[in-house]
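Title: Prediction job returns without error message
Component: structure pipeline
Severity: low
Priority: P3
Assignee: unassigned

Description:
Job completed but the reporter wants confirmation the result is attached to the right record. Sequence as submitted:
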Amino acid sequence: MADNDTKRRPRGLKRSTLASPAQSPATVEEPVVAKKPRLEKEHDPEDETQTLIIDKEVEEGDEVAEVKVIYESAVEKLGKMFMRFLVLEWTIMMGCSTIPKAALPLLRGTIHECDRILRNRHVASPPLPASFHLTYGSALFDMGTVLEEEEDPAPYWDAARERLEVGLEDVEKEVAEEREGDEGKRERQEIEKGLRMMLGRVLVSKSIPETLIPFRIPPYQQATNILFTTRSNASDKKTLSQLLVDSTTHFDRALSLPLAPATVADLCIAASSVQLHADKHEDEEPRLRWNGWAKKIFVSVLEDDPAYIPALMGAGSCLLSIASYWLEQQNANNGSDGEDNDDEEEEKELTKEEKAAAEALIEGTAYFQSALDASEITGTTTSEILAMLAESQINLANLTSDADGAQTALYRRAVAHLRHAKEAKSLEGWVLPEGLESFLDQWEVEMGADEEEDGKAVDGKDEGEEDG
């Protein structure tokens, strides 16, 4: 492998572009009987309505409760996309090509009904509860998140932020008036947690310039042109940075409410939101700071459940992003794209940047390997897990001496994982990122497709891996 540096240093793997547009819905006129959204090319043109049967007890005339039920029904329909994160691995939106078609009319219906409730209010009406603003703001955020790629989500997110902040102001007023033994205290904290969690997600989304929806495409499948670089306008960077500070403040408050303890889902959603943002920065301070913030939360989840796959993938992704930063700095210092003298590569001492990258990659690879091990036990191994592990192994191999065969062993493991990734189950529309596909093709051309030999390397797993 030492004679082909192109193969040994496949840079930019994390940002191979994968188009995965969601489809746009049509506007609905009623909350429970709605026009069918344009979600799939093939559908029955005669089936243009959808009826929602509310199977939960709602007091007659309680419009706030009714609209909450409609939104909860939308969330259930979105489950295939959003809850994948909680079931399989950290990359929750790994290139879904379609949105569950039953969800969008329900989101439209929720927004329509909430807007109607607001318009029908008058001065003498009692104030709407904070839970109403949570429902309205959540529906607006979700709608903005699942729009077609060419549509601008900002108006939805701005409206969501406004609604959620109104709700939070109301909760804070109620908290200020709380008395000892107040029976509603727990419920208020649950609502406050929901408002702060959603506000955190809104602000993270707004803090990424020219963003592709952060919950749609994971770090290593995003285009390089959405990186938040030093070339950005200084005032814009300050504004965007403040949005992220505000978002993590909301997350921290939400995750620390004593009567509304954070769930594993809360923790991982907050951490993954921030990590996806951190990966878009080229500057050292935000890249390391926000990856560190996210990793700390993922690790806290693993303290209670060491085999929890989303947290393992999340921690590994934080470390892979940190390693990528140091490798980018090494390339910049060399004034090259990472091409080194092959004859001297194995003998020279690693630079400060390479040592920092190797340290992060060793730890990150261990997290990815643990995620794969856990998924094999539960039968939930996916292409995404295998690809992330392979990417980390390839980059670690680039920094590893082959004097004792350790480098070649790492490459062989990565190749075996990439082959498996092409056959394993994955989200609809997922493909092996271009950089990884190119690495695999080059390996098989120059080294041959010796699946048996590469399989032996995987059987050896991490023996000696940390020696690099």
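Comment from assignee: result matches the submitted record. Residues 145 and 213 are 6 Å apart (CA to CA).
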